[in-house]
Design goal:
The structure holds two protein chains of two kinds.
Chain A lengths: L2 E3 L4 E5 L4 E3 L2 E3 L5 E7 L6 E6 L5 E3 L5 E5 L4 E6 L8 E10 L5 E5 L3 E6 L1
Parallel strand pairs in A: 2-12
Antiparallel strand pairs in A: 1-4, 3-9, 5-6, 5-10, 7-8, 8-9, 10-11, 10-12
Chain B lengths: L4 E3 L2 E4 L5 E6 L6 E7 L5 E8 L2 E5 L7 E4 L6 E5 L8 E8 L6 E2 L3 E5 L1
Parallel strand pairs in B: 2-11
Antiparallel strand pairs in B: 1-3, 3-8, 4-5, 4-9, 5-6, 7-8, 9-10, 9-11
The chains are: A mainly beta, B mainly beta.
Chain lengths: 116, 112
Amino acid sequence: AQSVTQPDIHITVSEGASLELRCNYSYGATPYLFWYVQSPGQGLQLLLKYFSGDTLVQGIKGFEAEFKRSQSSFNLRKPSVHWSDAAEYFCAVGNRFSGGYNKLIFGAGTRLAVHP
Amino acid sequence: EPEVTQTPSHQVTQMGQEVILRCVPISNHLYFYWYRQILGQKVEFLVSFYNNEISEKSEIFDDQFSVERPDGSNFTLKIRSTKLEDSAMYFCASSEASIGYTFGSGTRLTVV
């Protein structure tokens, strides 16, 4: 069965420090991979997605993620964190069924706190 | 940028009442979805909908839930007899077949 694991429930970093949020997935074929960000009480905003091709994906707000098939990972990175990045981050895996639709399986999320 | 619109943003209902959550997907999208997020927990798939029928539903999506696309633009989720455990944020999403989702901003449902 498909699954997504985000090993870190909470992470705290200082403003200006680098960030890496981990995501591991279990899926039989090449998945579609996504990172979403959610501020408190808000909806889900897509940061970036991987479908195929270059395994290093650039997203919005200065985020990037690297797909590593051998490690079944899709870690999210940012070189310098801003206080406004404090939020919850969700990794998700999707698969395209023969019917064309795309069901997402989400990880449990990583809550990021940023110290000034 | 096109958006998925959900109304209302917050709904409070009494246990046992019926609620309808409304969504307007992006106009050229063909696939529609509902997800649920209980407070503090992960986002969970409820149902996908294409060509006026359900493509897949999760175990959560039992007989008290139903979806409908009544008029070609709206996509609704109905909960027939709400329970306390239905309190959650409900997200609507739409997609084209090969492109990632767009989520709405959610409806927070509180059952009292």
